[in-house]
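Researcher: Here's my situation. A collaborator sent me these components and asked whether they could plausibly form a single complex. I don't have experimental data yet, so a predicted model of the whole assembly would be a useful starting point for our discussion.
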Amino acid sequence: MICERCNSLDATVHVTKVIDGTKKEIHMCENCAKKQETIDFETPFTTNNFLANLIDSVQSSPLKVNYIKTTTCSKCGMNYGKFKQTGRLGCDECYQTFEEKLIPLIKRVHGYENHTGKIPKRASVAIRMKREIMDLQKELDRVVSKQAFEKAVEIRDRIHYLEEELKQSGEHND
Amino acid sequence: MVNIMTNWMDREGPLSEIVISTRLRLARNFSTYPFPMALNQKSAMMLVEDLENKINELDTVFGHKHELVRLSELNAVEKRILLEKHLVSSDFIKPGLPKALVLNEDQSVSIMINEEDHIRLQCLLSGLQLKQGWEIANRIDDYIDERLPYAFDDRLGYLTSCTTNVGTGLRASVMMHLPALTMTGYIDRIFQVASQMGLAIRGMFGEGSEVLGDMYQISNQVTLGRTENEIMSSLDEVVTQIVEREQAARKQLVDHNPYQIEDKIHRAYGVLVNARVLSSKEALEMLSYVRMGMGLGLIEDLSWNIMNRLLLEIQPAFLQKFYGEELSPFERDVKRAEFVRGILK
């Protein structure tokens, strides 16, 4: 049998695929088979599934079968099993749905678990206030280490003020 | 139609001698659509249309022409060219969801829609220009977000399909030409130091561990817990250091083996201007010597722009498009030799 792709070498690789109930056979030479990316081998090595597998190794207790089966994102229908397989999330809410598994993984990948970079312009006042508090706390540590106590008191007061504001705006929203 | 010329390269950037280009990429998703992983064909198509309508004022706001091309409108060679020019990823041109690409006039800005994330916004500039690239990408990022809000979390930042991009969604990368560090073997040390600093280095051309043309790409790995500025400054510092090391290694090579190095450089130039059959592997190797010769002042009358262009234009799909015909690998090697001779004449 001659290879279907290059029509020159002998076909030594035979693949049967079933797509939507229709059986399809592909016969290729070894060279063309290597180039063919659509063949799904048993366990393809990708960054994504490598990471997804890390997920369980960072958890201290073995994962309950229940969690895999029952934890499903209400917004996009993604379940934990599928996430583990692909390493990709289905929507923004998946981050909340799988939070307990994701946070340790994220921490392991990045070494951090809090975003300190850009905030969208339209972000709520609350997010901006939280960010300011975070930045001020860093600044506070810095001035304390320099023993600039007057400045430290000023910063501490500003933090208290922002925290108070934040609490009140939260109450209004509830 | 996708223009085959890339004009961003016409402007010479800082440190062009060693730094070819700077690329900034932002990964973004919209909160109103499922991420590409969970997106169906219909919604993916809707997203493309939605964006097309909402970002139609890009031209007036940024003073450049922008074009939205659907992947389905492109033939195989055109897709390949976009890939060779680093305007799209290999995942982007694979079959799957309906996808689209937004390109500006000089192709310094490209936006992939429905790749791994809804948006992969990229800014590509010549030489080392991290800050400038960030300013452009940041403005377009704001522009899109004002029209269609991104998925953003208070604690984790911009939410992405894969957890490796979460936070800033920023991947900053710099492409560098490091022949002397490669020849002397110092490059291994650079690899070690970079990885300790959370940066990754890989060869730009060649498969597996083989690096062709001594071209490397260095980029940040961590996207969370560091600000965009922190990410770019540390990359900038490391790149500047590598440039200094490369220059020192070149000097060392010439001081210790003046005739051998000069000979290799002039021979390489001779091959490029005389060859009648030129494989892409040989072309990349010879271009690397010639570039180094230019840096050392041994070869004059050639510009960095021409060298940068050749790097892209000796690739298979570009040649195919340029000569407007299907070429077998051997015919391609013949045309490549012809093309390079024509440019360097």
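Model: Some features of this prediction you could bring to your collaborator: Chain B has two domains: 7-248, 257-344. Chain B touches chain A at residues 29, 31, 33-35, 37-38, 94, 116, 138, 141-142, 145-146, 149-164, 166-168, 170, 198, 222-228, 231 (CB under 8 Å).
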